[in-house]
Amino acid sequence: MTLYAATVRTVFLGTSEFASTVLERLACDPGGPSRHRPSLVLTRPDRPAGRGRKPHSPPVAEAARELGIPLAQPDSVNDAGARETIVAAEPDLVVVCAFGALIKEPLLSEYEMLNVHPSLLARWRGAAPIERAIMAGDMETGVSIMRVTAGLDSGPVCAAASEPIAADDTYGSLAPRLARRGADLLVQTLDSIERGETPRFAEQDEREATYAEKIAAADRLLDPSRSAVELERVVRALAPHIGARVALVEGTMLGVCEARLVGAQATSVGVHAHDGRLMLGCSPGALELLVVQPPGKRPMEAAAFLRGHELRL
To answer: HEC string of the chain?
Structure first.
């Protein structure tokens, strides 16, 4: 199969908010429509969400509708019907970004597929690369353009760009920067292909591979037996989309939306009030919990929580 043509015709597979940013950049140049505008978008089916459990469309579906791009939401991208839909769009290549489902044979071999992945591969392959980079205290991360293969984010890489992680970065601040960086890198890659330049793919170094496991319930828990430095990173990594939690003595879970390190060691381990501030004593160090979310309520300043809640010690 030949990748090189005057215009590269694409089909886009994506689901998340991150992917919707990439799709919007792929479809639109700063001055108007892009020549890289996909001929088709495939995303996951609508899913129940919220208290009413009403069906909600993935962010990519909403973006495709706003952009006026034909949209398909098959139960499985690997089904014969989904593959026929892709064939009808006549793509030169398929772009994948945060799709959230495995692409299997024979679809995997029917098209050249480029994936936009938010890490500097081989570091942080897998489901939660942005969160895991912040949790680990990495000083930088980035985006990679890689060929989709049967392995988990293990395909060869043809382009990469780094992005520093600031000391106050949250998922909410870092992910949009990476999405924009990844979108620009993808457009540059497609531009070079259209110029007839052959992408130079380099195999990943397996010795450097790390895995960004999906965020589980245990990852959200602020365990005071861990250091305050570690837990502050957890809060930032999960804000605002997933959210960290801390257990109160009465057995309820308190959401923690924002926290900061304090210089002194806490007088006691666990959640307690000190001089009108909500503190989490750790081993070692301490966090001041700045914005919290009681069960069933909206996020609030810690001072407001303390006015309406008597902490049991």
So the answer is: CCCCCCCCCEEEEECCHHHHHHHHHHHEECCEECCCCCCEEECCCCEEECCCCEEECCHHHHHHHHHCCCEECCCCCCCHHHHHHHHHHCCCEEEEECCCCCCCCCHHHHCCEEEEECCCCCCCEECCHHHHHHHCCCCEEEEEEEECCCCCCCCCEEEEEEEECCCCCCHHHHHHHHHHHHHHHHHHHHHHHHCCCCCCCECCCHHHCCEECCCCHHHHECCCCCCHHHHHHHHHHCCCCCCEEEECCCCCEEEEEEEEEECCCCCCCEEEEECCEEEEECCCCEEEEEEEECCCCCCEEHHHHHHHCCCCC
